[in-house]
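QA checklist item 7 of 12: single-chain prediction sanity check.
[x] sequence parsed
[x] length recorded as 155
[x] structure emitted
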Amino acid sequence: MRNRSTVSFIGLWELLHNPEFNCLEFEAIKKESGDNGFVMTPKRWIEVTGAVGIVSKQGRYAATYAHKDIAFEFASWISPEFKLYIIEDYQRLKNDENSRLSLNWNLNREIAKLIKDLRESTGMSHKEFSEHTGIPVRTLEDLEAGRESLWQRIE
């Protein structure tokens, strides 16, 4: 924990996730970091700043653990290959999410079109169709105009 960017990353994580984080001590540590004589152990970091993202166990089975966000950052710093896997997986997940949203949008359009086609094939007005189906007139109008999703009404 000698590198200024490491201290900055962990400090920023704490600022975002730990309301009890000691910001004043963090700023002082950040100013010192990067100097040749600067040394910061995980134990001291936790004691001075009240950090929760890193846990340090002492004794016979001593170990230091970090929150997964912090662990991913360190792992990507150590291994460029790991970092590329993270980037590729993130992009895959975003593509999957976008494709699901696109399907949802298309489904909304198709259902709205079916409702409109059904209403028009019966020759009913919005009001008559509303009375017959129980779908409010305003909802029918909004669905047919593409201003509302049927799923918004169901939820």
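[x] summary fact logged: The chain has eight helices and two strands.
[ ] second reviewer sign-off
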